[in-house]
Amino acid sequence: MGGYLDHLAVERGLAANTIASYRRDLRRYTQFLAAAGVRGLGEVAESDVSGFLAALRQGDDAHPPLSATSAARAVVAVRGLHRFALLDGLVPGDVAAEVRPPAPARRLPKAIPVESVVALIEAAGSLEGPRGLRDRALLEVLYGTGARISEAVGLAVDDLDRGQAVVRLAGKGGKERIVPVGSFALRAVEDYLVRARPALAAAGRSGVRGGRLFLNARGGPLSRQSAWAILQAAAERAGLSVQHVSPHTLRHSFATHLLDGGADVRVVQELLGHASVTTTQVYTLVTVDKLREVYASSHPRALS
Predict the structure, then answer these.
(1) Which H or E element spans position 81?
(2) Over the stretch 161-175, which tens digit does the pLDDT of each residue have?
């Protein structure tokens, strides 16, 4: 198992959190096999792998039943382990190849209307002083680029090329992508850099030049948790339900509004940094729902 995890970290470049999840899943798998009297990967049968999947979904005294999403992740880890063992010549065949992970229920991303996005950004910028300029710039960047919150707070000053109107985002697995930045976000960031960041930087050791783009009140890097709190506070001031505003709300809204405006799904895939277009296509379900609603209310013979 250790060799496989090293392979994932070094060769595949998976994130540390993903490696930790795989380690937990595979530890549970080896415990399941040991309880079944299986002493090594060479003795594993396909029924053992499918039995492990069933055990994940049913749960036991030590583990609650796993959702389809969590069970699917564990099965993917197990299948990867067996494929790695086959390629490494440790086993004669891949007994896990035909065991399919359970299909998780498709959850539609929750976007908010454009007017709600505007209200959210205006509310973020309503605070007096450097914090208001920072918070507005942060939310403009999130909505203007579709960045994850972790990507936005991880930005360095030099990652934003204001001349070319693009930003370099470091996504999952260390994969970088270049994304255009709109005029509203550029203007908000310019205001923040000139009128707010120097004051925030003076409170710490970051200095005005270089370092993270978004700073906290002590001059250190703004954390993901603090960015989440900024979003929630802005939602409350804007009169939006905090239950409908999450760390991904502006990212989901970015994608949905692009598709509503006629953007190609593969372009949106590149902008979001999705490895597969299948991940992005969930947003097309949202736009189809909107088309259906417009059709039903507008076409003279849509309703009986």
Answers:
(1) helix 68-87
(2) 999 999 999 988 778
Residue 10 tokens, joined: 């070094």
For the stretch 156-211, pLDDT in tens is 999 999 999 999 999 887 789 999 999 999 999 999 999 999 999 998 764 444 58
CATH code 1.10.150 region(s) in the chain:
2-87
For residue 73, give every residue at least 6 positions away whose Cβ sits within 8 Å of its Cβ, in sequence order, or none.
Answer: 21, 25, 101
For 183-199, letters b (16+ CB in 10 Å) and e give: eebbebbebbbeebbeb
Q: How far apart are CA 269 and CA 281, in angstroms?
A: 9
Where are the domain boundaries for CATH 1.10.443.10 in the chain? Answer: 115-246
What distance lies between CA 270 and its chain's CA centroid? 14
115-246: which CATH architecture? Answer: Orthogonal Bundle (1.10)
- Could you tell me which CATH number the domain at 2-87 has? 1.10.150
What confidence tens digit (pLDDT) does each residue in 103-152 have? 766 666 789 999 999 999 999 999 999 999 999 999 999 999 999 999 99
Give the catalytic positions in this structure: 148, 172, 248, 251, 274, 283
Residues near 36 by Cβ (< 8 Å), separated by ≥ 6?
Answer: 48, 51
CA 13, 109, 143 angle in degrees (round to 5)?
A: 75
